[in-house]
């Protein structure tokens, strides 16, 4: 049989192929020749054939039929055969295939071989694809090589030990004696792999972490020698001595210093030296500085050192490299809550990043800008963010508008400024705001009694200019219906009043009704506004005509409203003025929990957090039935989910029965129940997973001591909001449980706010409280659902 072609010739031949089909034909022809050679047990060219097979495997063609040939090469006495055999094993085999177990004995023999290069390829293979069984069998040989004086083998053995620990963590203690002298090695390769091994052991075992904390002075000394050492061509990268080893040591110091005062104190000086002495003109220096910043922020470092770290990130923001700017913004966003004032110094640079062309940098800059807003800078920051809202791409507008709404509500210096700001958002990006913005703004306007004339005049002007922004038109229609008489009378004191007639106001609302741009919801707002004006304007006949026209509308909702309003004119005209009178001030219901400390970006002050009821919180239709089996049996009472507090509850029904002898009438008014907090019960954490944290605070009803009131506080530690949040709970049959409406169905990211919800539990027999909770939400575009059991309630909460 003729000798097979060489690998180099095969590569040259394949590269001459002009089409994919031609290449496949060449590969198939060569694979057939290789199979024939394998069947004939041709030992002479087995190494060459396996090498060609590996090349074809790299091109994406099947090469599994060469697995056993790799094992034969490994068993060969030639180093060239072993090298190709081990390479083939790493590429063609993995721990899911039983074939790999056949090579365990060969690897063991090669680990004890007299040639270091044979030992080296065996260590590489074990560290690459060794299974848990192989690691258990060969850990002793790896540990022996870790103690050898040969630096070439020690560095490979250290990396192999990392793989062994990942596969079989209980073998970690076997390598502990060998690690004692690793950091005394002067070879940088051994030092690097030793630090990797120590890092892996510290991350996997708290005991190892405590044990290795005594090595902090030695690590500090190694790092100092690297910084102070002169030029070394063997380790120099862009003028910096072995930056890879420096980065690894900084990561290990970060793990060792986290939560430990003594270790943090020992490394403060060296971190300051690295931060001040590292050259920043090259990317290598920036990488070391970034790791230094992360280490400073994670350990218990001095305040001056933390300020230095934030100033380094501020310098990163001025770098021309987009990746460095993005990394700086992300790091500042993580530290803004703990070192707010230091980050504030770089506010102008952060705001400038809003003008960057890179969308990732713009998003991070926007999130960080909102995190920097406080009562002192709210006017200036809102001006910049409103400008950004006007100029940014559509994908940013929804998040930016929501952020402006939250910041304005939290830090508004005056009600007029608050209203002006929200109106600017509606006129700039009205089509992108979330659904709850309309009722929230209506509530704000209603509660600002002295601003009614100014607001309705501003909204009237805005609608004259543009009726394409549906939320703006909805708010304007509502205000013109409520305060149309103030608009016509021209009583505005805040700005120059305009002269508007009743017919002009009705013309605008009728224009909204007939406009193709108006949504069905907007038309409903407009029709209701026209109906309300029948008690404020004298043009009642014109209003009757408009209302009667829509009695035959194809829109069922609009038709129903028109028919009901016509009936009001014809049958109940004596009640019309009372039914259509102005809306009273909408009071915000506060949570029943104790006073909380609100995070106000550097201006923390105690206040009672308001709980706003969203207009429509989606609940699963079979919510009670879904929870019947949460506690695994038939002794479970289902959840009773109440509606908003203003909705009447059926007298004599489940709601009245739930709270025992509480004196409730046909309308359930939650605000009339008085609660007193438990004085000696601290809050408890019921759930903490995937960035979602659920805390419970406890109260008891003064009216009925058997009723315990639990307020949940849901917070989100991730960077992305959790939408469609639904909290459900179930208790054993001996209890009765009631869930009130949550404050929101969106849990803001980065712990910027909490969603609160009140649970009332009737426990007449004073039994120990047990609860199963079910959490449903949408995070990063995917739906998440989880169950948890809460059994560690404080004794005072149920006795």
Which descriptors apply to this entry?
799 residues, alpha+beta, Immunoglobulin-like, seven-stranded mixed sheet, four-stranded antiparallel sheet, 15 strands, elongated
Give helix % range: 40-55%
Oligomer: single chain
Query: What is the terminal separation in angstroms?
Result: 91 Å
Total helical segments: 33
What sort of overall outline do the alpha carbons produce when their principal axes are compared? elongated
* Structural class based on helices, strands and sheet pairing: alpha+beta
User: Nearest-angstrom radius of gyration?
Assistant: 36 Å
Point out poorly predicted stretches.
589-599, 604-679
> What's the count of strands?
15
Strand content of the residues, in percent?
A: 5-15%
The biggest sheet amounts to: 7 strands, mixed
Query: Whole-number average pLDDT?
Result: 83
What can you see in these coordinates?
With 799 residues, the protein is an alpha+beta fold. Among the domains are: 435-580, no CATH class; 684-797, Immunoglobulin-like (Sandwich), CATH 2.60.40.1230. The chain is built from 33 helices and 15 strands. Strands 6, 7, 8, 9, 10, 12 and 13 form a seven-stranded mixed β-sheet that branches. α7 (116-129) packs parallel to α9 (151-167), α20 (359-372) packs parallel to α22 (394-411) and α28 (520-532) runs parallel beside α30. The N and C termini lie far apart (91 Å). 39% of the residues are buried. The model is unreliable at 589-599 and 604-679 (pLDDT under 50).
């Amino acid at each position: 049989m003729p000798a097979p072609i060489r690998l180099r010739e095969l590569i040259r031949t394949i590269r001459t192929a002009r089409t994919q089909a031609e290449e496949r034909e060449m590969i198939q022809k060569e694979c057939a020749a290789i199979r024939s050679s394998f069947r004939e047990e041709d030992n002479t060219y087995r190494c060459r054939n396996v090498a060609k097979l590996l090349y074809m495997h790299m091109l994406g063609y099947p090469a599994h039929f060469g697995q056993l040939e790799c094992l034969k090469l490994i068993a060969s006495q030639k180093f060239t055969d072993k090298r190709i055999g081990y390479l083939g094993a790493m590429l063609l085999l993995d721990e899911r295939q039983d074939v790999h177990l056949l090579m365990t004995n060969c690897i063991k023999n090669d680990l004890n071989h007299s040639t270091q290069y044979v030992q080296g390829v065996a260590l590489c293979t074990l560290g690459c694809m060794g299974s848990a069984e192989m690691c258990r069998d060969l850990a002793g040989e790896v540990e022996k090589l870790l103690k050898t004086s040969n630096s070439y083998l020690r560095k490979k053995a250290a990396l192999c030990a990392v793989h062994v620990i990942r596969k079989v963590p209980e073998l970690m203690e076997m390598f502990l004696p060998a690690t004692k002298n690793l950091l005394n090695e002067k070879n940088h390769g051994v030092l690097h792999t030793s630090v990797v091994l120590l890092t892996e052991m510290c991350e996997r075992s708290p005991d190892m972490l405590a044990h290795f904390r005594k090595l902090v002075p030695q690590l500090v000394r190694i790092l100092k020698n690297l910084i102070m050492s002169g030029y070394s061509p063997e380790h120099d990268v862009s003028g910096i001595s072995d930056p890879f080893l420096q980065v690894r040591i900084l990561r290990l110091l970060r793990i060792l210093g986290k939560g430990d005062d003594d270790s943090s104190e020992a490394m403060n000086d060296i971190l300051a030296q690295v931060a001040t002495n590292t050259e920043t003109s090259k990317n290598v220096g920036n990488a070391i500085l970034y790791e230094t910043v992360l280490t400073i922020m994670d350990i218990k470092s001095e305040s001056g050192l933390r300020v230095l770290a934030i100033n380094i990130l501020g310098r990163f923001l001025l770098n021309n490299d987009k990746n460095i700017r993005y990394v700086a913004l992300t790091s500042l966003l993580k530290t803004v809550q703990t070192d707010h004032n230091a980050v504030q110094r770089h506010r102008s640079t952060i705001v400038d990043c809003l003008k960057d062309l890179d969308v990732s940098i713009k998003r991070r800059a926007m999130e960080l800008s909102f995190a920097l807003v406080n009562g002192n800078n709210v006017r200036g920051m809102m001006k910049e963010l409103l400008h950004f809202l006007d100029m940014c791409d559509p994908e940013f507008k929804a998040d930016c508008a929501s952020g402006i709404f939250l910041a304005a509500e939290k830090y508004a210096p005056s009600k007029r400024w608050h209203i002006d700001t929200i109106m600017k958002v509606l006129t700039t990006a009205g089509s992108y705001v979330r659904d709850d913005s309309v009722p929230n703004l209506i509530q704000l306007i209603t509660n600002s009694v002295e601003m009614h004339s100014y607001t309705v005049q501003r909204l009237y002007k805005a609608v004259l200019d543009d009726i394409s922004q549906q939320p703006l038109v909805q708010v304007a229609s509502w205000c013109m219906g409520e305060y149309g008489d103030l608009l016509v009378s021209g009583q505005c004191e805040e700005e120059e009043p305009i002269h508007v007639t009743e017919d002009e106001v009705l013309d605008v609302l009728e224009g909204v009704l007939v406009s193709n741009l108006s949504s069905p919801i907007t038309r409903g707002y407009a029709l209701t506004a026209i109906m309300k004006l029948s008690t404020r304007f004298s043009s009642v006949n014109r209003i009757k005509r408009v209302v009667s026209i829509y009695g035959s509308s194809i829109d069922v909702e609009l038709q129903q409203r028109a028919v009901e309003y016509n009936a009001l004119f014809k049958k109940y005209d004596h009640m019309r003025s009372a039914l259509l009178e102005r809306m009273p001030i909408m009071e915000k219901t506060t949570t029943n929990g104790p006073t909380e400390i609100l995070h106000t970006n550097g201006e923390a002050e105690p206040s009672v957090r308001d709980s706003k009821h969203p207009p429509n919180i989606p609940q699963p239709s079979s919510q009670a039935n879904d929870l019947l089996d949460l506690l695994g049996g038939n002794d479970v009472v289902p959840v009773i989910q109440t509606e908003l507090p203003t909705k009447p509850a059926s007298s004599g029904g489940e709601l009245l029965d739930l709270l025992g002898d509480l004196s409730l009438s046909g309308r359930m008014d939650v605000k009339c129940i008085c609660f007193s907090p438990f004085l000696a019960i601290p809050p408890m954490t019921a759930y903490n997973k995937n960035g979602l944290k659920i805390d419970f605070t406890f109260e008891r009803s003064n009216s009925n001591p058997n009723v315990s009131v639990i307020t949940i506080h849901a917070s989100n530690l991730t960077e992305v909001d959790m939408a469609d949040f639904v909290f459900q709970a179930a208790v054993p049959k001996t209890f009765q449980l009631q869930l009130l409406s949550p404050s929101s169905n969106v849990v803001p990211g980065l712990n910027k706010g909490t969603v609160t919800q009140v649970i009332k539990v009737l426990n007449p027999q004073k039994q120990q409280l047990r609860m199963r909770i079910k959490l449903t939400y949408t995070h990063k575009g995917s739906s998440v659902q989880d169950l948890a059991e809460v059994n560690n309630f404080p004794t005072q909460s149920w006795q």
